[in-house]
Amino acid sequence: MKLSQAVNLYVRRKQDAGARFNAPAKQLRSFLRHCGDIDLHRVKLPQVTSFIDGSGVRPSTWCQKR
Questions:
Q1: Which alpha helices (H) appear in the chain, and where do they start and end?
Q2: Residue 45 has pLDDT above 90, yes or no
Q3: Residue 1 — pLDDT band, cuts 50, 70, 90?
Q4: How confident is the model at residue 54 (pLDDT cuts 50, 70, 90)?
Q5: How far is CA 25 from each of CA 14, 15, 36, rounded to the nearest angstrom?
Q6: CA–CA gap between residue 7 and residue 47 (Å, rounded)
Q7: How many domains does the chain have?
Q8: Does residue 53 register a pLDDT over 90?
Q9: Rg value, the chain, Cα
């Protein structure tokens, strides 16, 4: 499964369950852009860490990404 498929499926299921999931969906799509549309099993800790840490990320943004 590709990362884009996983993100889309997760967001759709959250929204179908009635969650307002706009901000988290935006963060997940940002992560997708950061990593590229790779196979899900290829997502590794360094990619996640570099996304969360970002450049000039405020503590509140860091918590949202996490």
A1: 3-16, 22-35, 45-53, 59-65
A2: yes
A3: very high
A4: confident
A5: 9, 10, 16
A6: 16
A7: 1
A8: no
A9: 12
Residue 55 per-residue DSSP state: T
The pair of three-digit structure tokens given for residue 22, joined into one six-digit string:
């706009």
Full-model pTM: 0.81
Dihedral class, residue 38 (left if φ above 0, else alpha if ψ from -120 to 50, else beta): beta
Domain encompassing residue 25: 3-65
Encode pLDDT of 35-44 as tens digits: 999 999 999 9
What are the residues whose beta carbons fall under 8 Å from the beta carbon of 43, sequence distance 6 or more?
Answer: 3, 35
How long is the chain?
A: 66
Nearest Cα residue to 7 out of 34, 38, 32: 32
